[in-house]
Specification:
282 residues, MetI-like fold, mainly alpha
Length: 282
């Protein structure tokens, strides 16, 4: 007795349909970003020049302040976040307390940035009496990006094959030697990528630095110590767009374009570092 098999779609056709759908989704996500960048360039392209980026009455103080802020944030958040990820991935068990910690990390990643700003204002500015300064802003942004760094680093550590760990332990290496010489080098690409992407988010935040770090004055634009206030690009953009109506709108759009270009540049750097490290390892 012959059983008639149901008609199956050619796998090549289904594969083409799937890839076409993925490309359409990627295009749907990318086109708004390209449109926003092109619109900002169209509105502010007339004033974007080298003098705008390097003059004291242009964007130079804000670029320097943002660089200081992002660098100090990374110096604070990276060791703590990577250390926490190593503990959770390699040493912590599967108990109820560990599950609660992971749940807290996930929830903290979704807390609005203005809440972190208010917390930083209460803790660093008022209680610790640091005032509105570079250190207060960097510490607040470090708390903001810490859950993202922990999650990204822990995921990168999980991607390392367990066989590498077992082989190292079988050869007589200790737990820490295995982590330092086998696990971390193989997870380094993902960890650095997650850290740069997290810091890129911090570079564009306005609410935390509005409460803890930023000011707008050309008389003293550069901080001498970490306890001096700074001029940050998101805050300067906020001030020029809302509180200074006499400013040329093209200047505001040019500033927005430079800020978006800075964030996109950090993302491209993360992608480049990840590809180079993976190519070097494998």
């Amino acid at each position: 007795m012959n059983v008639r098999r149901p008609h199956l779609i050619d796998p090549r056709i289904s594969q083409r349909v799937a890839f076409t759908g993925f490309w359409l989704v990627a295009l749907f996500v990318t086109l708004p970003l390209v449109g926003i960048v092109l619109y900002m360039l169209y509105r502010g392209g007339s004033v974007i020049n080298w003098q705008l980026l390097t003059s004291m009455d242009g964007l130079y103080p804000a670029i320097v302040g943002t660089t200081y802020l992002v660098s100090l944030t990374a110096l604070i958040a990276a060791p703590v976040g990577i250390g926490a990820a190593i503990y959770l991935s390699e040493y912590a068990g599967r108990g109820k307390l560990v599950r609660m910690i992971r749940l807290a990390i996930i929830n903290l990643a979704g807390v609005p940035s203005v809440v972190y700003g208010l917390f930083g204002l209460a803790l660093f500015v008022i209680i610790l009496d640091w005032g509105r300064c570079l250190m207060s802003g960097a510490a607040t942004l470090a708390l903001l990006v810490l859950p993202l760094i922990i999650a990204a680093s822990e995921e990168a550590l999980r991607q390392v094959p367990r066989g590498l760990r077992e082989g190292s332990l079988a050869l007589g290496a200790s737990k820490w030697q295995t982590i330092r010489r086998v696990v971390l080098p193989n997870a380094l690409a993902g960890m650095i990528t997650g850290m740069i992407l997290s810091v890129a988010r911090a570079a564009g935040e306005t609410a935390p630095i509005l409460f803890t770090a930023a000011f707008y004055s050309l008389s003293n634009p550069f901080p001498r110590t970490v306890f001096d206030p700074i001029i940050a690009m998101p805050f300067q953009l906020y001030v020029t767009a809302t509180e200074e109506p006499h400013v040329d709108p093209a200047f505001t759009w040019a500033m927005a374009f430079v800020l978006v270009a800075l964030v996109l540049g950090l993302n491209l750097v993360a992608t480049f570092i990840r590809s180079r490290l993976r190519r070097r390892r494998w």
